[in-house]
Amino acid sequence: MKQLPLSGVIIVSIEHVIAAPFCTRQLADYFSRVTIIECQENRDFSCNYDERLKNDLCILF
Questions:
Q1: CA-to-CA distance for 52 and 49, rounded, in angstroms?
Q2: pLDDT given for residue 12 in this prediction
């Protein structure tokens, strides 16, 4: 069985705004396990770019 590029790698990310979420998205795309820690009061403002999305989904990530 072929080993996936980042399988078994665990990433814990404390991040805010575009560059860091983009980076962790790339890591997740290569099969690492990513856990994002985010402040409830001061969430990533880019998640409010598209008001049509529901359920706290972010259009960019």
A1: 9
A2: 94
Give me the residues paired with residue 36 across strands. 13
Q: Is the pLDDT of residue 56 over 70?
A: no
Q: What distance lies between CA 5 and its chain's CA centroid? A: 18
Strands 10-14 and 33-37: parallel
Residue 5, classed as helix, strand or coil, is coil
In order, the DSSP letters of 7-61 are TT-EEEEE--STHHHHHHHHHHHTT-EEEEE--STT--GGGGS-TT--TT--S--
The pair of structure tokens assigned to 7 is: 């399988």
* Residue 9 token pair: 């790698």
